[in-house]
């Protein structure tokens, strides 16, 4: 059997996030519903992810390899021999979720976790996997739209409900019949030998997804999954007050679930992009403003429009050092807060650039020399 880390292409000390990213990339590449997909490879990827994404399973795999999930695997080798009656011998690749194993020290973990696993924890896990995965989309918008709000159509590739069968996974007109696997109960029951004795586990039937019915005619497009790879388009409508790094959650707009099960959520991460003449640094907006030399000499008030559309005035008569920027408090970009438009804003920083005339007549040059001499005498 292939090493699970090699299957996902990650190192043995990979973080949970790295494992998740590797799985999503490979699953998207080899999904059997996608053209050129590889069902066998997809199953290998899914199996590796199920083990490495679960802390307890991963710990068992790191210690015992594939033997941890085989008949009697791992547990009998670390403090329980078969003659003594290994209480974990009946797992045979079963669900280790919710149970912490420390074979060397004899730590049986939290009894509450064990009861959760044997009396419903496993079934809950199966129901969760039928739900579609969450999807994250990165969206870059101009900084001006943080103040005007945005309404935009966003399209992205993901797993969507099959339009051929409306996400059912089968021909509704052809009807259904009693599930041959669970006998119509929607539940599969298994007896397990534990250190408490023989305990019966109840899992949601993975053949009928707990409905107790199986289709007479499986959908030819989605092969019974009720979902296929496709393009999804949603309308994003956000009021003014967007901030850099904001994450917008759209419930139920992620991957479609199996056979009509709940969809995952869509998370849209907003990135504000600097525009020409405007630089964004956190919540600080920095702009450069050209100031005619004549305005400086006369000490005029200059005005311009900020990116939020509001008028900003600077009194040049109050300034003696034009190398220092003008700082307007509370006129920068939005920061995180309790609601759109209610967040505290950063500052607006204006760099003044004094511009002399491109051409100067003889009269202007003479006056400039006289002014320069006068200014030098007063300094």
Structural description of this entry:
With 379 residues, the protein is of the alpha+beta class. The protein is built from eight helices and 15 strands. It has a four-stranded mixed beta sheet with strand order 10-11-15-14. It has a three-stranded mixed beta sheet with strand order 1-9-8, with no helix packed on it. Strand 4 and strand 5 form a beta hairpin. The longest helix is centred in the N-terminal third of the chain and has 20 residues. It is elongated, with a radius of gyration of 33 Å.
Provide mean pLDDT, rounded: 76
Give helix and strand order, one letter per element, not per position: HHHHHEHEEEEEEEEEEHEEEEH
Total helices: the number is 8
Main sheet makeup? 4 strands, mixed
- Report the radius of gyration as a whole number of Å: 33 Å
* Termini Cα gap: 86 Å
* Class inferred from helices and paired strands: alpha+beta
Record the strand order, biggest sheet.
10-11-15-14
Helix content: 10-25%
3D shape: elongated
| Beta-strand residue fraction | 25-35%
As residue ranges, the low-confidence spans are 71-128
Task: Name the features.
three-stranded mixed β-sheet, 15 strands, 26% strand, 379 residues, single chain, elongated, 8 helices, four-stranded mixed β-sheet, alpha+beta
How would you concisely characterize the structure shown here?
This protein is 24% helix and 26% strand.
